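step: validate -> pass
step: tokenize input -> pass
step: predict -> running
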Amino acid sequence: MKAAGRSAGARLRDRLAASDPGLLRLTAGLRTVGAIAVTLAVLASAGNDVTHLVAGAMAAMVATFAIREKQRGAQAVTLALGLPVALVSVSLGAVLSERVLVGDVFFVVLIFAAVYGRRFGDRGTAFGLIGFQVYFVALFVGASAGQLPGLWAALAVAFACSALVRFAVVPVTPSGLLLRLRQAFRARLGRLVSAQLALLDAGPDEMDKALEDVRLANARLHETALMIQSRLEEGTPDEPTARLVQRRIADAEIAAERLGLLLLSARSAERADTLTLHLPGAPAPEVGRLPGPDEATAQLRRDLRALRVLVVRTRPGGTSVARLRNRLLGYRDEENLPAATPAVRDVFRAVGETARAVMGLRVALEGPQDESDDSPATARSREELDAEDAAIAGEEAEEAEKPKGLERPTTRAAVQVSVGSTLAIVGGELLSSHRWYWAVLTCWIVFINTASTGEILVKGYRRLLGTVFGVVAGILLAALVGRHTWTAFFLVLVLIFAMFYTAPLSYTLMSFFVTAMLGLLYTLLHTYSWEVLVLRVEETALGAACGVVAAALVLPVNTDRRTNELLVTVLERLAAVTEAAVGQLSGGPGGDLLDKARELDQALGDLRSATQPLTHPVTPLRTRRTNARYVVALLETCAYHARSLAATAELLPTHPSIAADPRLRGAAGRTVRNIVTIADRVAEEDVTVPVETGPSIASLLGGDGTARYGRITDRVLRHLERLDEAVVGLARPLSVPVKPTDR
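step: predict -> pass
step: emit ->
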């Protein structure tokens, strides 16, 4: 029973780690709720009234979520310097509240400074958030000059309690956060293997769902890999260790994704396109039973279960685990492959490569392992990993180029939000001379983390939708709570936790919880009424409209321009990764390929976010939505093959079975030229150079396109050919002419 309890606990931890990588959402919710709860306890014990309790609670929330630095020392400095900013802001809010014109002008200046401050990094962003939000708190509680001493004390308590919870009650160190992210990666990798196991057994009627589960698991694994990448520098003791973990994470991700692709191909009546794994909603190919003897299918099912055990098991020791590992790593040798069709044998090879990647990841994260039960195949894999580790440790990271130039997005956004806020102040005061600031708050929020008019429109729509439903919830909660102050505060804490926990998942849900919470705060301040909540909806709609108008008329960046700029960046980085990887595979000098691949992934993530206005379900432009989704899916396919080429190229100096082939550079030259051609066409519409098509990459190496060159060379050719096909496929939706090349 005790062992079963521990097993259930481990499964629960894995589920939580997979659903909330690094427990970032849980930590944010607990920290914020804890800071508010401690602040309320201290202020209530000192006999403060409800107004000071509400002000202190809101200040504690701001002091907690505004701090974004990763290092604890930097967080402490920002929190300490943020208190004077908050004191000045609340003082000006109280003093200027009775001077309408001067107060409005100052509010606009404050908004401009807060947005412009984002150019100075996390600390500048934090000071801007604290200054704006605390000024808003002063307006919300109706602060006056006579109340300032009490408000100063409440803010000081709030910042002190926020520091206490951050550094003592819910502490997060960079190394601890990275550890949790690594656990999340393992949990999500286990989920992906489970989805692949379901794909193996899915019948024709279940195939679409099984394939969608694999797509989702791939996307979540990739998301966690990028999160780990962003935390490596602070969470690892030195640069070589960071690069080693980065490499092993990339190896595991690529190996697992390739396993799913080969499994799908083996089950397909015809060759499965890589695009099928990256295009949401794409129908599954026609499938049948796995070709070959039933014994091979049963063995593959057993091996996928064994692979899942290797992934999710927290402790690597034990004879049974060693036997599983030895068996799976044995598939890297041809003589250990079962009797089956070539496609099924490729799946077993992929199982072996994924097991090797899992072992390398475990060694990189947990240090040396027990080698007493190693088989010869496992010992060879360890030797390869040791050689790669030594090569990675000897590399020097390239210095990243910092952006230059006077034209910065923060300046444009600051001007836009200032104009939008001016409109919101004017319109908001026409609606209500006492609560006009809700329109300004909405205008401010819809500009945060947006870069185009379309993104602002979508964010404004989601905020309005969440506000409407939140008003209904606020009415119900206010009626239930009545005058029970501490019951209302308890529900406020619950709603705040829900707000922070759901914020990264759904902006609509976050807006819903915010509005419901505000209904309770109005109840506490004895200003609640049906009219107030209806006014909240009206002010929200007005603020969103002012934000869209300002974004559309003042220094506009329309969605097409924004997506085109990001698309060019993705294509340029794709060309850089492909050219560097092929150059190294052709015998050229080595380079920092994985960093280039991660830069490509980051650019692709930015593009995916920027296309949300085009792919949103409510968009009336159905053709553009389909086109945008297709282009992004093709680019994700290209990025997968480019990452795979980069990972293979980095094995070249140390892997005994990989040799450089000078012919690859010439064979892949057409693909790189096509990527550059498409990028030029997107950047300048008058470019008319066509994309070239022609013989297969294999035939350009002197073969007939069907000959096998050896396991590693076949893999490189497969990635190059799929990349070439996907790049040519980009030409049609991007209106680039295609011209066949003479043989």
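step: describe -> The longest strand covers residues 691-693.
step: cleanup -> pass
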